[in-house]
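New to this. Please check this fold:
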Amino acid sequence: MLFSIFENSKKRNLISTTPKYLISIVGPTAIGKTALSIKLAQYFKTEIISADSRQFFKEMQIGTAAPNVEELAGAKHHFIHHKSVQDNYNVGAFEKDATSCLEQIFKSNDVAIMVGGSGLYNDAVTKGLDYFPEVKPSIREELNKQLEINGLEHLTTQLKTLDPTAYKTISIDNPHRVIRALEICIGSGKPYSSFLNKEKNKRPFTTITVGLTADRELIYNRINQRVDIMINNGLLDEVKTLLPYEDLNALNTVGYKELFRYLSGEWTLEFAILEIKKNTRRFAKRQLTWFKRNESTLWFDYESDLEKIATSVQAQMV
């Protein structure tokens, strides 16, 4: 009996020290990340974490290209439609929730899958977040007023003066990112960029990043086709139901903000759809720029077969 207990104890210790791996699937929108994540989850018999910051919201189904019922049935998913656009849910909260979820997955699996095109949310899980000091809420309120009165260019000009490095590296066409950088500069008296890339807590797992790509023209064609499919599937009706929440940050999203302008009478529907396609293509370009920074990513053509990708991933598991 004592021998049996000792052997069981050794087995538990062996299990607890087994290396854990997070396979992170990245790439531009419409490239096929969802399909690959499900195939890899089935291959490794594990679960999927979504790091797509807009697929969190249950009211935004069509315009975020969230997994459909059949895809969700293909593997267990986490963080799909678990929040409302009215919830105050940010990258910090997601980091805590996702790392806690991974801890649970790794109790019974050595591998987990993460998929999504939101670079910041992806990095929050794989690398951890940068620390920023607390600043007075009144600073953000004032910046929001300046945005409304003077426009985004006025704020980006301020940022260029206060923090040229941040001006060159963040998405300056994203008002939320610009205001965030400015409020740190103003509130702390230090450049926003000075708080980036500090030493963070080491993760108890190894990340293997798999990237999907294709020729730019093909990516853009897939995006155009996806937008047409979304429109045919009822995106406009979905946006109409969200009109009361138009000013929420969650809805400052490609596919929604353009149709809001159509519904306000500012644009024609045809022009709004063209703008969705153009802005989605620009978003895909920014995604590729973000993900290409990681030199350890295993890049594959979007049509690569599962066996080739899985074999390359397993070769990293040493």
Summary: Residues 245 and 251 are 8 Å apart (CA to CA). Confidence is low (pLDDT under 50) at residues 1-15. The first helix runs from residue 2 to 16.
